[in-house]
Each structure stands twice: as structure tokens, then as C-alpha cells.
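re: ur question from earlier - yeah i can do the single chain one, its not a big deal. heres the input i used so u can compare w yours
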Amino acid sequence: MDTFFDLINIITNFFSIFSKEVTEERIEKNIDALQEVEWFRELLANEKYHQAIHHNPDVRYAIGKLNTKKLETDPSSPRFERAIKRAIRKVEE
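and the output i got, formated as C-alpha cells:
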């Protein structure tokens, strides 16, 4: 039975290498990049969304999960807008 748990542990560690670690630094960096885009500035102008972006852990996590390199090169990509708006909608429900 111990070998089974060891195998599960090895597999989990292997896949965790490929997962994106979300840190406050990464979230803030992504927010800075997103502020170049009009739709994100409009979200921040709305007090309700502003609070969600800056204080809700689920929305902040979604922002942190975005690919930072792609975000810096093309922050206006529709997939970023969809991901953030989806996270905000989940919070509103």
C-alpha cells in the first residue's frame, strides 16, 4: 500500500511542475499589463468590479493564472477578457 501512495505522490509532484504558481507579485504584474486595455479600465471604473478585482481571492487567482508573457505581448486578447469576466460572474452568483 505504501508503494501505491508513493506512486501517487510522484505523479502529483510531476504534474505540479507544470502548474502555474499564483503569487501576489504575478497577480499585480498581470493587473498592470491589463490596465493598458480599455475593457479592463472600464471594469476598474465600476466600483463593484473594482472591489472584486482587488479583494476577491477567486478573481485575483483567475488573473494570476493568466499567461504573463502572452499578456504582456497582447493584453487585448479576447481570451483574457473572457477569463476575467467569467471569474467575476461566478463571484456575482
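Residues 2-18 form the longest helix (17 residues). not sure if urs matches, ping me
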